[in-house]
Amino acid sequence: MNELLQVILLGIIEGITEFLPISSTGHLLIAQHWLDRRSDLFNVAIQAGAILAVVVIYWRRLWDMTVHLSRPENRDYLLKLLLAFAITVVGGFVAKQLGLELPETVAPVALALIIGGFVIFAVEWYAARQPPREELTWNVAFWVGIGQILAAVFPGTSRSAATIFAAMLAGMTSRPAAAEFSFLVGIPTMFAATAYEAFDLYAEGQAGDEPWGELAVGFIVSAIVAFIAVKWLLRYVQTHRFTVFAWYRIVLGGLLIAFV
């Protein structure tokens, strides 16, 4: 397949899967099992393209937090976002120092997809027996940060799944509220990860080897597709549970183990 078409396909896959609880990194690794393998910077950068869609969708919320920071509710929300982000940074740094890298094979991703599917069933069972709560507590922020680390260390887990369901288990049982916090904490997380990978390439003198044109195309495609996917998901979770994604993960993981 032509290189540009591969990049567009990967951008579409990333845009669709970044915010659905089915693992964008896992799907990219699966796709690159058949397509050409891309750099870590490419994988992170197109994830940042998807995050850009969240900035556009939530720009009013972000603007309000910025210009009305004196309001206690805005300051409180921002501080809890920063706590989740800080935990992620520390955990990500430790993982990097330990030399943890994305797997070369599909098997670990398939296993994480299946386990994650059963976790979704368990969380939904728990949430169905709790009153819907939208309150963002420090406990929620802490466990969302831990969820981001878990997703980074175990591809196939899904960053959105780990953070949404961590929030729900920690007490934020309202699906829309948990999804919003998950999406917003992803903004600094993914942009910081992209900047780190870019700086790492530059420091190693490899920046000239990266196909920046292809990376830009993947970034733009991912952003456009993610905008559509997030709009759909935010409407979906108003009236539906996440169980359909659990079934998808289990079936996909089983097929990968059986045939790949």
What does this protein structure show overall?
With 260 residues, the protein is mainly α. 43% of the residues are buried. The two termini are 20 Å apart. It is built from eleven helices and no strands.
Secondary-structure blueprint:
Blueprint: H1 3-17, H2 24-34, H3 40-57, H4 59-67, H5 72-97, H6 107-128, H7 138-153, H8 159-169, H9 175-203, H10 212-239, H11 243-259
Helix pairs in contact: 1-2, 1-3, 1-10, 3-9, 3-10, 5-7, 5-9, 6-8, 6-11, 7-8, 8-9
Short structural summary:
The chain has helices at residues 3-17, 24-34, 40-57, 59-67, 72-97, 107-128, 138-153, 159-169, 175-203, 212-239, 243-259. By secondary structure, the protein is mainly alpha-helical.
Shape: globular
Helix fraction?
over 70%
| Biggest sheet features | none
Strands, count? 0
Q: State the oligomer.
A: single chain
Sequence stretches where pLDDT stays below 50 over 5 or more residues: none
Specify the number of helices: 11
Order of helices and strands: HHHHHHHHHHH
- Structure classification: mainly alpha
Mean pLDDT across the residues is: 89
List the defining traits of the structure above:
78% helix, 260 residues, globular, mainly alpha
